[in-house]
Amino acid sequence: MVAVFACPSTTTTMVTIPEVMLSSGAKPMPLIGMGTAVYPFAASETMRAAILRAIELGYRHFDTAAIYRSEEPLGEAIAEAVRSGAIESRDELFITSKLWCSDAHGHLVLPALQRTLRNLQLDYLDLYLIHWPVSTKPGRYEVPMPKEDLLPIDMRSVWKAMEECQRLGLTRSIGVSNFSTKKLETLLSIANIPPAVNQVEVNPLWQQQKLREFCVAKGIQVCAYSPMGAKGTMWGQDWVMNCDVLKDIAAAKGKTLAQICLRWVHEQGDCVLAKSFNEKRMLENLDMLDWALNEDEKRNISEIPQRKGCLGLEFVSDDGPYNSAEELWDGEI
């Protein structure tokens, strides 16, 4: 399935964004989305204006989170887009947000989602995710957090509350983020409503083949964050943007290195989330659908040595619940 939106730069150019149906929820998810995480986390007028412009350019999928501080600017941009006629209603958009660790307690999930909806000025989300398989002491919205605040997550009670949010119609689908294959297996064993999405780091230097194969087999859609490595953030690295293999492919195809990364992720069948508030790059990030990587290029990318950028060390402590990155990711690093 594809969604077709007019690009306002000309009267003839069309942006055709493929969509995928999730295992739950009636609305398909656009396979290209705009991320809104800027580190240090903070709302800004620049963010609001960039999101509004992205809607005008044809973006329909937006990814936010309670910890990002981007819910309010996103909500303001959506409201302005409706007022200006850029979209007829919020229903044209696919909005994802995430439950932060300090709210990852069974009794706090519903209030957290209600707060997110107030921030966004919306009646419902399209997708609500558990941000990390970790809980922290309630009340703090910060990262890194004090190590003494880290707690094991009660997955059964948290997921039950997520399921109730879906039953109430406050979110159309529910899912997770940063879950390993093993953690997904545990969740699937207790879930009445299985997770529709697992949002994880995916790029040519961290290809996630084992996890993707598991998710495909279980009907879980992979959403890729940091497709270009998230250079300049606390969770990112510059390895992807400095990769000679990707530089050579980009030069040969007359594309940017970022476009090579986005196209590669798209060809894996993943939803890809890219963050840029620069209009030129926003357009470039959409321009990766009418061309393809050839077999030699795909083989060269498949042979790139793998290095995980986001280790999640802020969630690791000698006192647990995870004593090492290997334990957090169940050896999948």
TrEMBL record:
The active site is at Y68 (proton donor). Pfam families: Aldo_ket_red. The record marks K98 as: Lowers pKa of active site Tyr. InterPro entries: AKR (IPR020471), AKR4A/B (IPR044497), Aldo/ket_reductase_CS (IPR018170), NAD(P)_OxRdtase_dom_sf (IPR036812), NADP_OxRdtase_dom (IPR023210). One of its GO terms (biological process) is response to iron ion starvation. Keywords: Oxidoreductase. Coiled coil: none annotated. The keyword Acyltransferase does not apply. GO terms for molecular function: 3''-deamino-3''-oxonicotianamine reductase activity. Residues 32-304 form the NADP-dependent oxidoreductase domain. Substrate binds at H131. Belongs to the aldo/keto reductase family. This is Oxidoreductase 1.
